[in-house]
């Protein structure tokens, strides 16, 4: 029932203030058993009540749980007469509704009965009559009061109307009067009152009123006569339908006015605060129904106190204790977001940007809740917080001011105020299907609008905004504050190195002191740590040695020494990663941290050999990600995947991690809706400050994934089985992890089992079943309880042993030493991603849409339900009780406790069976499970699967070596034959130097002995000695603007054109150099020998090389139609010519600088050779300057000078 007296009464109780007495209800009906089966399933013969909009905290899902009725006197009665069943028979039929202040109410009441017999049983039936749910202690009263009479308007203001009427009568007593405004309930008065004030009205508006009387039984009278009133005009000239009033106890009456010429609202208010359980402020408001948004530019705020608040508000009512959402600007604390979730409840506050007026604020109410944003320009919005608040359909939106000092007033000015429809949810989704560039642009915008929880945290957000010229001064202040705090996680140090290298050219001298002090606060040396932390420490140390050569770390190492020792550590980790497989494979949290470091090495190292190693390591990562990707979902077991939020990764939501990067390049079967912790309303996500995706997304980064990997990732018809091996754990010690996957175009099953295990983490996902769905979280997985960790968070490979055979997987469990950790959890998402679920014969059968799956525990199991709003210890009572431990999604959890246990998972493509019922029948008829050995010393399970294979698994130790305990048709699985990669596209033997990637008629061979990449024809033996063209150090086709270039304030340079016609052009008549230099983040100033090639035309232009500062570089000056000279700034502000003038026309008759030519300058040691259009033209020698970047410059000697450049490439010298 979605409507009716019962639902209304229950919601009335839920809406009463917190602490009000609970109200009991009783389920009652008459029952007779009309057909008696010979095989009734007693537990499935029951009645139950289910509430819609439950959270199992404030509102239970099942107020009356499914309790068998087979033991009641009515059921057992053989007379055939109907007999009553109520709480006297089943105590659970009496249930309590506990008031929650309206924080959550129900949407439906569902009353259901169930009957079931076992296979082959005769019919079972029963009859129900006189079904009722009634309130305990109520007097049955169906007579309504008489209608009130004489309703009149006693007075009105601009925002209120006073009413009076003649009392109604009732056979019991009138308990309340409801006042309706234009048919909508607007106020309620007590049963003894005959007057009411209706507030929150709009000025100059005509309203129609009526009153109804109510009694204690909920009976309502007919309406009174109608009274009509027109409110007074707004004294401040507010535009319709805005009105204004004081709310709460204010010391000085407030006011609001509007200047039509400037579009400015001026709001003046006193009041102690908007905070705590009640508010005091002045409010300029208007009503709004449904979803909507308010945007305002806060132009000024009078500083009556540091916590004076002026902002925009969404409010349930004009009551001082009303629920609300409030985005405000303060004189002393920047922007803040506040809310009160229930009437009279406490308020909470989230800090935003550290800023002062003028600033922009925005509140949006849509399907996701209420979202608050701030902005420096009204275009680029930063999320402050998203919150779910139970508000009526019609709310009040407007401008609120509290002085925070009740004896003083404060005035705030607002302009560009707009109230309107909320943007469609779909408008915030990523472009679909989009392109790589549009998807990356969407992610880049997400980076720039991450949520700030408290204080400066989101380093990527600040850097991204600075790179785009947004809020630069404020963001530099935030970065400066971050450099003054110590970080215990080494990847944060790498993030701060990125920030320095990307925007450090804008740091002042004091900030640079903080930067140097920060990087000098660490010891960059070999660590006994996890993979990502080791790589982070070594990468940071290496780059400190390169970019701060005079800076010593805590061990006293600096410069070349620090750089060299950390290079050795980096190379050792890369070597292990490409030969043994990365330890933190497919970890949504940690894989990206290692990738972030490799990208930093490739981007910023001045050593080509190390850059090549980093590139090849990243390439292999991309090939594995591409292999595992099925149009939006990774099909793989996962290492170091802790927490519900890292398990969920799909088009509804995924973290700002490597899967988001994969999505940008590979795409998905539906639009990506949200990404990153800022986009999730789950309280378990509190760490957007650890999201560094933006650093590698930036357009100035040089690394690009292999085109073949992109094609493999974009393949939407994958249909294969694969095997992989990883041979190291996160601390770098030897172990063996055998991984398998069965993959179809729209779903896949992946598992893993570990051997030779030492000191490894418990954060793996050993069983992963994902499928395509339009609903969130299409993922079935298994976990085992560990300590106080949240349910579903961890696994224990030592206790939990798993094997896979194609579409089927089995597992055995043996608890060794931890008596409280003998639970296995089967996590069934309760998000709509499972279309239907049925149970039979101990199996749970699920229809997931594109596929079916069946799961069965050997030992008894019990169903539980836990949602993202439930306390983290609801099901697993030993879990830590903290918001960050809550689930990201709702789950139905099948939980089995036994020291020795087992399970079976069977899957099938939906195309294989006509229906879920057909799949059920096939499993029940054609499979068998022998669990007779499950309680032996080493539990054993034998399963005959749908494929016809017999799977036989016996428990063995994860710390030991594999000893043929996993068998298929009595033949042991040969795990020793598993390769590092053995998939349709990827091949690599264990510890092999050769990795091959094959797609169609193309094959790439990666040789990790000499660090080369070669192309081969598939089916031929690769030649490890083939060395392809090296990666360029830098390239720019000028289609992406000037992001790679430092202009040093010059306005002489610009880019224009598209495609092959895109160019860099400059023109000036200034008599001092107008420089355009490749940023050191794109081409390090430490670069020594290289060649630069470009197309150019012009006259009197300069090509700069070995550029390290404005007083240290060489340049070739092309002038006088055909001549060239070598000049240098030898660490001096005065240029000196080196060598003689050369006429290029001597080598190329008819040459003219005004025509397009291809130039190549080879810079090697002290020799600089220039060729034009492939013809040697000049050679110069000089040994003063040994390293630096490249660029172009113009300097006039009177007339205008100009230059045009196309297709610039800087290559290493072989």
TrEMBL record:
Show the InterPro entries listed in the entry: FN3_dom, FN3_sf, Ig-like_fold
Highest taxon, organism lineage: Bacteria
Instruction: State the residue spans of region: Disordered.
Output: 216-255
Q: Check the record and name the SMART domains matching this protein.
A: FN3
Entry-linked PROSITE patterns: FN3
Q: Which stretches does UniProt call biased (Polar residues)?
A: 219-233
The Fibronectin type-III domain is annotated at: 147-234
Query: Pfam families, per this entry?
Result: fn3
Q: What is this protein called?
A: Fibronectin type III domain-containing protein
């Amino acid at each position: 029932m979605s409507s009716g007296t019962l639902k209304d009464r229950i919601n009335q109780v839920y809406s009463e203030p917190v602490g009000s007495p609970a109200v009991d209800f009783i389920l009652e009906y008459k029952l007779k058993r009309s057909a008696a089966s010979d095989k009734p399933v007693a537990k499935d013969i029951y009645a139950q009540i289910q509430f819609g909009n439950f959270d199992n905290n404030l509102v239970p899902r099942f107020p009356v749980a499914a309790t068998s009725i087979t033991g009641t006197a009515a059921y057992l009665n053989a007379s055939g007469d109907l007999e009553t069943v109520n709480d006297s028979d089943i105590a659970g039929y009496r249930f309590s509704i506990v008031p929650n202040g309206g924080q959550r109410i129900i949407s439906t009441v569902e009353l259901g009965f169930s009957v079931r017999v076992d296979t082959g049983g005769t019919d079972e039936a029963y009859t129900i009559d006189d079904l009722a749910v009634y309130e305990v202690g109520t007097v049955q009263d169906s007579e309504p009061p008489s209608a009130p009479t004489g309703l009149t308007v006693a007075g009105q203001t601009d925002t209120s109307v006073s009413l009076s009427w003649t009392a109604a009568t009732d056979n019991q007593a009138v308990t309340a009067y409801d006042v309706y405004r234009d048919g909508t309930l607007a106020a309620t008065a007590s049963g003894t009152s005959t007057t009411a004030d209706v507030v929150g009205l709009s000025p100059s508006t005509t309203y129609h009123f009526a009153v109804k009387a109510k009694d204690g039984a909920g009976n309502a009278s007919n309406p009174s006569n109608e009274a009509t009133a027109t409110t007074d005009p707004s004294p401040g000239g507010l535009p319709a339908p805005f009105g204004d009033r004081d709310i709460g106890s204010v010391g000085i009456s407030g006011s609001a006015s509007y200047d039509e010429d400037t579009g400015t609202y001026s709001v003046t208010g006193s009041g102690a605060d908007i905070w705590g359980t009640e508010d005091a402020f002045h409010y300029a408001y208007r009503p709004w129904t449904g979803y909507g948004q308010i945007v305002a530019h806060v132009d000024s705020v009078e500083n009556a106190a540091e916590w004076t608040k002026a902002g925009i508000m969404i409010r349930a009512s004009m009551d001082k204790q009303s629920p609300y959402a409030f985005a405000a600007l303060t004189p002393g604390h920047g922007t803040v977001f506040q809310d009160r979730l229930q009437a009279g409840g406490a308020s909470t506050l989230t800090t935003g940007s550290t800023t002062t007026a003028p600033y922009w604020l925005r509140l949006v109410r849509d399907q996701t809740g209420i979202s608050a944003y701030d902005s420096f320009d009204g275009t680029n919005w930063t999320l402050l917080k998203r919150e779910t608040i139970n508000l009526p359909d019609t709310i009040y939106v407007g401008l609120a001011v509290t002085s925070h000092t009740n004896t003083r007033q404060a005035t705030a000015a607002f302009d560009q105020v707009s109230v309107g429809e909320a943007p469609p949810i779909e408008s915030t989704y990523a472009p679909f299907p989009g392109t790589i560039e549009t998807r990356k642009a969407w992610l880049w915008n997400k980076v720039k609008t991450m949520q700030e929880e408290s204080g400066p945290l989101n380093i990527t957000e600040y850097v991204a905004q600075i790179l785009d010229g947004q809020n630069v001064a404020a963001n530099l202040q935030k970065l400066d504050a971050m450099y003054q705090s110590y970080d215990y996680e080494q990847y944060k140090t790498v993030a701060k190195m990125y920030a320095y290298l990307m925007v450090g050219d804008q740091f002042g001298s004091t900030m640079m002191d903080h930067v140097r002090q920060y990087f000098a606060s660490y010891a960059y040396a070999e660590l006994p740590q996890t993979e990502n932390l080791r790589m982070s420490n070594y990468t940071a140390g290496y780059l400190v040695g390169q970019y701060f050569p005079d800076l010593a770390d805590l061990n006293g190492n600096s410069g070349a020494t620090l750089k060299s020792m950390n290079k050795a550590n980096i190379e050792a980790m890369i070597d292990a990663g490409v030969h043994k497989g990365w330890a933190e494979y497919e970890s949504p949290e940690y894989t990206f941290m290692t990738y972030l470091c490799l990208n930093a090495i490739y981007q910023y190292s001045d050593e080509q050999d190390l850059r090549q190693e980093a590139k090849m390591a990243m390439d292999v990562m991309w090939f594995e990600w591409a292999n595992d990707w099925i149009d939006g979902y990774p099909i793989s077991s996962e290492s170091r995947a802790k927490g519900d939020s890292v398990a969920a990764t799909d088009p509804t939501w995924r973290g700002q991690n490597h899967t988001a990067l994969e999505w940008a390049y590979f795409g998905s079967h539906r639009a990506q809706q949200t990404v990153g912790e800022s986009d999730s309303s789950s309280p378990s996500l509190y760490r957007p400050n650890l999201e560094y995706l933006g650093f590698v997304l930036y357009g100035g980064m040089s690394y690009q994934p292999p085109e073949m990997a992109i094609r493999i990732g974009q393949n939407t018809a994958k249909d294969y089985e694969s095997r992989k091996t990883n041979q190291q754990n996160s601390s770098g010690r030897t172990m063996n992890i055998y991984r398998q996957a069965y993959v179809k175009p729209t779903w896949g099953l992946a598992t893993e089992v570990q051997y030779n295990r030492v000191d490894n983490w418990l954060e793996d996902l050993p069983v992963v079943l994902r499928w395509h769905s339009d609903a969130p979280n299409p993922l079935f997985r298994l976990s085992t309880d560990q300590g106080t960790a949240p349910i579903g968070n961890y696994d224990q490979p030592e206790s939990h042993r798993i094997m896979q055979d194609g579409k089927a997987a089995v597992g055995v469990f043996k608890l060794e030493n931890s008596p409280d950790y003998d639970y296995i959890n089967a996590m069934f998402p309760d998000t709509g991603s499972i279309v239907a679920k049925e149970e039979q014969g101990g199996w749970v059968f699920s229809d997931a849409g594109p596929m079916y799956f069946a799961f069965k525990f050997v030992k008894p199991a019990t169903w539980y339900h836990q949602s993202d709003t439930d306390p983290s210890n609801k099901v697993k009572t030993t879990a830590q009780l903290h918001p960050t431990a809550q689930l990201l999604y709702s789950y139905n959890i099948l939980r089995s406790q036994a020291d020795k246990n087992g399970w079976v998972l069977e899957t099938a493509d939906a195309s294989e069976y006509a229906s879920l019922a057909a799949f059920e029948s096939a499993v029940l008829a054609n499979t068998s499970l022998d669990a007779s050995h499950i309680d032996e010393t080493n539990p054993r399970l034998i399963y005959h699967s749908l494929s016809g294979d017999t799977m036989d698994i016996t428990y063995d130790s994860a710390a030991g070596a594999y000893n043929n305990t996993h068998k298929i048709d009595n033949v042991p699985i040969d795990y020793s034959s598993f390769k590092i990669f053995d998939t349709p596209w990827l091949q690599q033997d264990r510890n092999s130097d050769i990795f091959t990637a094959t797609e169609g008629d193309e094959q790439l061979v990666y040789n990790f002995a000499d660090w080369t990449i070669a192309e081969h024809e598939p089916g031929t033996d690769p030649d490890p000695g083939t060395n392809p063209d090296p990666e360029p150090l830098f390239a720019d086709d000028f289609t992406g603007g000037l992001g790679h270039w430092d202009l040093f304030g010059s306005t002489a340079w610009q880019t224009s054109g598209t495609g092959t016609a895109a160019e860099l052009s400059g023109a000036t008549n200034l008599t001092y150099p107008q420089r355009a230099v490749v940023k050191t983040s794109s081409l390090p100033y430490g670069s020594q020998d290289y060649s630069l090639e470009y197309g150019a035309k012009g006259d009197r232009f300069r090509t700069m090389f070995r550029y390290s500062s404005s007083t240290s570089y060489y340049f070739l000056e092309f002038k006088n139609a055909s001549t060239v000279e070598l000049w240098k700034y030898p660490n001096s502000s005065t240029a000196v010519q080196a060598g003689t003038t050369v006429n290029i026309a001597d080598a190329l008759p008819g040459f003219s600088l005004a025509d397009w030519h291809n130039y190549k300058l080879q810079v090697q040691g002290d020799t600089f050779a220039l060729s034009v259009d492939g013809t040697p033209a000049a050679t110069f020698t000089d040994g003063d300057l040994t390293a630096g970047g490249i660029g172009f410059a113009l300097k006039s000697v009177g007339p205008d000078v100009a230059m045009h450049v196309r297709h610039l490439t800087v290559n290493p010298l072989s």
